[in-house]
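Predict the 3D structure for this chain.
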Amino acid sequence: MDRNSIIGLGLIFLILITFAYVNQPSQEEIDAAKRRQDSIALVRAENDSIALAIAGTAKKDTLLAAKPQLDSNSLQNAYGEFASFTNGNEKVTTLENDEIKVDVSNKGGRIYKVELKKYKRADGSPLVLVDGDGNDFSYGFATRDNKAISTKDLFFVPTLNKNSVSMKVELAPGKYIEHLVALNENNNLVDFKINLVGMETVIAPTNNFLDLNWRQNLLQQEKTHDAEEKTSTIYYQYPNEDPEYINETKELKEDVKTPIQWISFKQQYFNTSLVNAQNFDNAVLETKNDPNKKFVKFLSANIGLNYTHQSNESYTMQFYFGPNHYKTLSAIGIGLEKVVPMGWGIFGWVNKLLTVNVFYFLGQYLGNFGIIILLLTVIVKTILFPLVYRSYLSSAKMRVLKPEMDEIKVKYGNDLGKMQQENMKLYRKAGVNPMGGCLPVLLQMPILIAMFQFFPSAFELRQKAFLWSPDLSSYDSILDLGFSIPFYGDHVSLFTLLMTVSTLVYTMYNNQMTGVTGQMKVISYLMPVMFLGFFNNYASGLTYYYFLSNLFTIGQQLLIRQFVDDKALHTQIQENKKKPVTKSRLQQKLEDMAKKRGIDMDNLGGKK
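Done. Predicted structure below.
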């Protein structure tokens, strides 16, 4: 295998390793568990009274299910002075603005249903983010007379205002539980405030935490259940730190014992997030898959709210119900935009500084995101053109030198060290950098990988049609096979097919330009075929971008070829040979390595 084959093979392996690596947990994620072990632990209230309260609540749920109508004595024994608030008919009070419609139930005084008015599910039905009994938002506590109370069992009394509703359980004047739910004007934020007034005489003195239970069964919103399942999980953020999340591909439970600022139930393109102005003291977070595929996932958070037995205690929280739109979330100012996967390191910076801003700017003037992706490709390719030119020029110089390199190979083919030394001398005399064609290609890789991260999670592409693709955020099937092919799937995605064909055309053209032969040539044609199966289920916006990128690259190289004459380049190289030689650091290092290798080989074979 010659030097070009070795370099090319190395680049192929680098691409594969890079694609695999970007989908692995970062070092920060791996270190998160260790950092939490060293964090300041807050003790959860797990005393006998709370354990009794939790056990009592479970028993009462069973009793209520079996006997919906309990007599007054049974209710009094189970709920004490809250007994009169456990009977009633569930009714909802509706609040809405231009963005969302929120139904607040009098049972539990909780948000019962949330509809996002500007969006639709993949099947065209209204997009309901939170729906009914499959969800829970309640808290429990033990009373001084050892009753186990959960707000989900209580019927609150509603009072509707202009854009808010007060839900109240009033035991006596100056002694009540109140939930205030208020919509913000024309955005996706909902204020939720808990007021406990005079409850220090009711709640057990040993009850130092309210156990807030938040559970949501994620409804399928998108075309593909599996894709949505693999991108849905729980994010959470410690104060003044970057958010962390539970691995999307596993069913896990995490016990977070340090204060956290917010918790987000994140789906592929939407999220329901809960923010606490005073931080949550601790939380147990859990994700579970639905084996029946009725729901995307089951997510839950058992949250500790510190209770200090004051006569008036309040917990000011805020919900966000809305899209995973980077600019929208960033405007909230609490780091919630980081639930949108942008990639780590340099890939994230490319997306945050370039891709997101281009999409946002052009999206204000153009409604067709197929055209916006085309313009993005033009911008990226214009930025990269100097690198493409240098890469082509370096490859052309190596192509012109190939006859002389072949002579060296024939002359010193049995002495690899000597052959490398002679090649280095030839490069130095000709003024050619042997790595000049590789480095520009490597410098382009961050943008290609950044796009790989951005497009599958870009909310802007959701349900945006272009040409034959009804949704640029999903695959563009032009043929459903009716059966599944291993490593490919059960459909044919046309943009993926076009991307593969254009990659093969570019590979063929590039091989002709560089004279690649043997194993390297076979591998160069095998890679696009492998990517055909890999990208078949990916967002059509991504494969459309890669297709355009290939076309522009081929066009740029054909254009450059018109201005680079091999004969003139050969003449220039011959003139360079006549000039005094100045070694670059790279050339000196490569020559030293070649000399060292030659000496080692001499020692190995016996020095003459």
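The chain has two domains: 41-339, 352-592.
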